[in-house]
Amino acid sequence: MSRAVRYRGRFAPSPTGPLHFGSLIAALASCADARANDGEWCLRIDDIDEPRVRSDAENEILATLERYGFEWDGPVVRQSARIERYDAALASLRQKNAVYECACTRRDLESAPLGAAGERVYPGTCRDGIPLQHAARGARAWRVRVDDSVIRFHDRLQGRQQQDLARDVGDFIIKRADGLYAYQLCVVVDDADQGITDVVRGADLLASTPRQIFLQRVLGCVEPRYLHVPIALNAAGEKLSKQTRARPLSRDPLPGLLAAWRFLDQPMSSPLPSSVEAFWRHASAVWSPSRLPPVPMLPAPIAFERPGPSLPDGV
After folding, report:
1. Domain span at residue 118?
2. Which of 17, 42, 240, 255 has its CA 20 to 30 A from that of 248?
3. d(Cα 182, Cα 186) in Å, to the nearest integer?
């Protein structure tokens, strides 16, 4: 891959529970894409949402990644240690008059129209100042002022994408009323500071990408390339996640790696790799984004979607 800047990717799990098959798909795709391009692969722990963080989860995540043969470049970065950087970004946005305080609650927005992504479109209630009827509310969020431009970008798998932020999202939150920074701001600042050139992640985050691109442009950050791979669904059609009680990954890594590789429709060797090390040699050599299923979601293999009496624990 001929690029002026060396490829630099990342994987950024939240320490709210153990990794599952859906996590493995995202980690495998991002790492294989980096290694196939002779690039670096960074690990970031997205622990900014303190109420949801589990104290034991980070060590469990790191141990699982090591057992599955993932090797990251440089130290592990933790969002909880980067509050000053988010403060600085917010200060920069305030200086540009690109943000404002908002006293609206979720109940206030229940009647707001739904945008194309299925989210409530913020009607701009506090855009020109806190309304008198909300002035007594002490808790305030910070919202970004969007303009009437349409954000367009090319996803390496999903193709041409565009979103009219004003129509489909409205002014969006970057710091919550409880004082915690929102994902949209954190991911932009983190990717910029780490020099991330390529973001490879699940297609469930495709709809939020225009918000991040908008922030990148306002803050003067370099825009990375994007590759959104299919997410795995359970039998109920729900995304595999900790919230839907997805099963933790097995202690035996090879079956999971091979299943995730098949899910991503990647070339399989014959005979199959007999070790984790052999799997990664094969994966780094033959990774092919052009073979990825060009869809946002796919059913997970039954063995990973729900438990079965004949399967080892966690498989």
Report:
1. 83-184
2. 42
3. 6
